[in-house]
Amino acid sequence: MPKDYYSALGLPKNASSEEIRKAFRRLARKYHPDVNPGNKDAEKHFKKISEAYEVLSDEENRQKYDAFGDNWRHADQSQQAGRGQRFDHASFTPENIFRESNIGNIFDGLFGGKMRNAPEPKRSSARLNIQITLEEAYGGTTRTITFGGKGPRSKSVEATIPQGVENGAKINLTHGHQSVILTIKVVNHEKFDRKGSDLYSQIPVPLYDAILGGEVNVETLSGNVVLSIPSDTPNGKRFRLAGKGMPLRKLPSKKGNLYVSIHVQIPTNLSEEERESFSKLRLYRSVKSAND
Length: 292
Description:
By secondary structure, the protein is of the alpha+beta class. The chain folds into 3 domains: 5-110, Helix Hairpins; 124-186, HSP40/DNAj peptide-binding domain; 193-265, Urease metallochaperone UreE, N-terminal domain (HSP40/DNAj peptide-binding domain), CATH 2.60.260. It contains 10 helices and 13 strands. The strands form 5 sheets. A 4-stranded mixed sheet has the order 6-7-13-10. The protein has a 3-stranded mixed sheet with strand order 1-5-4. Strands 2-3 form a two-stranded antiparallel sheet.
């Protein structure tokens, strides 16, 4: 049966190059062997759409196919032989497809790299420790990594460190046949302790605010917020500030909580009037306690 490359991609014969490319990407996501391990029907269909794309994505080959159908390969056999070019249907295996530049380039973007079951040259790997601050872990950051040592052959690649990355997390970075495993070290913060996506801190509160109630500024990684302190707040009381913790690495739009503990400050350098006031308060509390 004659092959209809346009039908294989679900396209009309007047489809544009961009439409051909988009159709192939869409179908490849569905039938790629990595997505359907062990599925022979999917692999067969993937070969079919890959063959169609290989022909239709090349303007010269497409013109010959439109003119001669299945015999397009022999339309200019002498010229093809002179250039050393050959289109062999037997070469359409999942491994060989990725050696062709057109399809290989598309899959670099589609799957983030080459097909996993395609044979690749042996990679050289290295390990590198990267230190970042808690603020950088909160907002995400980058580091420039150099491959190949020093000299004209060295290459610098920017590594993206995602929001919410935790201490000890590992990031794999590849460049050509070289790879680096980055181990993230989040430096301890002077004000915040971290447990997963939650943060913990202490804030000083004046004695009179703890007794009478008041407001204090609380530092967070996204800016200061005002915390209302109710009256009769005991020392060590913990408050939860929802969504003021660390971003979740896999879902950075969501964040953990910040837990703030109250540290009541005892006033010092009291004036005589202040001491007298505290003396009266102590006497009043003593009498009241005796009468209760």
